[in-house]
Amino acid sequence: MNGRPVLFGSSLKNKGMGIQLSFQLLVAIITAVLVLTALSMSRGISQVPKLVETQISSLSSCNFYSGKWVFDNQSRPLYNGTNCSFMDDGMACQKFGRKNLNYLYWKWQPNDCDLPRFNATAMLEKLRNKRVVYVGDSLNRNQWVSMVCILESEIPSHLKYVNYNGSLVTFKAIEYNATIDFYWAPLLVESNCDDPSYHRVDERIVRIDSIEKHARIWKDADVLVFNSYLWWRLNLKVLWGSFESANAKYEYLGMLRTYELGLQTWADWLDTHVNRTKTRVFFVSLSPTHNRGEDWGKANGQNCYDEAEPISNREYWGSDSDPEMMKLVEVAIKKLNEKSGFKVELLNITQLSEYRKEGHSSIYRKHWDPLTKEQLANPSSYADCIHWCLPGVPDIWNHFLYAHLLYL
């Protein structure tokens, strides 16, 4: 009997010690896990900037514009065109009956890198309290609609709106206080084509040295995205003086010289008025047309109508795309940089867009004028081979802009 209490007491003592050791071991294990987790997290945090730095380095050395189109029905399109609240009827190909939808699924793949995934929320955050203005012609409007459609799908309907005020169209993301504008100025400088609705004139006249009428509208922007090409392709008449002046002089200088002078006026305005510490400036190179089917092996008189696949010839260059005009843009940008260190970033979208003969609105758009019987009998006669279906080619132009703004 005396032995049992002793044995029982020893057992309790041993169990107590065992519980204490087990508890201490458990505490030690938990502490070790917490320490290792903290170390791991700290290493992860320290590595994040390195990862971003590596990605930035990769992108900064990458030629975005050399690559190929790849079919991708997983990550494309970037938005549902039929659900975009602010889609333009000139670009809404699905709405107007296009059945072959393969054009929706082509993704541009650069040779040297992968473009970062387009994150609409990240873009909106980047643009918080900022103003972006697309300035130019209807192809720049094409790009503006693309950007608005990409972003607006992430915004509740009561926190977004579009306002139309003459040449200025404003998209507002209210929660972010972000503004994305399009401003109609097809020649950048003042002209008789500046009315956004009534600009079809028999003779185009340009005030080659006058830009302030337009520029005062977009002077305060944080991001400026310019384009101007097709409207210069005719032999414009140059006006020296004002439209109201009885002593104004007119002359023809030729397309290239007129374009050069217009770009110089634009560059001089940037140099004088843009806040270099605030505003980033981009120029989008010429958007190609596909009006001449013979360029890619079709019969004369054919165009983009009924095309279903991109051009596979990597050397393809359309006859309507003027390399001399592109050089003038590059020279104007280079001079501006050398003269005063002002940086304009060129989005060189021409070659990659050349391949997309099937990406145009073609006949699948609203037609502002009634179609004649002759036109209806020959659809290629009224096919729009200038503007692009959305979703579509302009989305990649905006993808480049996204990469520049968020990573470069």
TrEMBL record:
Q: Which Pfam families does the protein's record reference?
A: PC-Esterase, PMR5N
List the source organism. Solanum commersonii
**What is the membrane topology here?**
Single-pass membrane protein
Every copy of the Trichome birefringence-like C-terminal domain together lies at: 115-403
Q: What is this protein called?
A: Trichome birefringence-like N-terminal domain-containing protein
Q: What is its main location?
A: membrane
InterPro entries, per database record: TBL (IPR029962), TBL_C (IPR026057), TBL_N (IPR025846)
Q: Which residues cross the membrane?
A: 21-41
Sorted alphabetically, the keyword list is:
Membrane, Signal-anchor, Transmembrane, Transmembrane helix
Q: Which family does it belong to?
A: Belongs to the PC-esterase family. TBL subfamily.
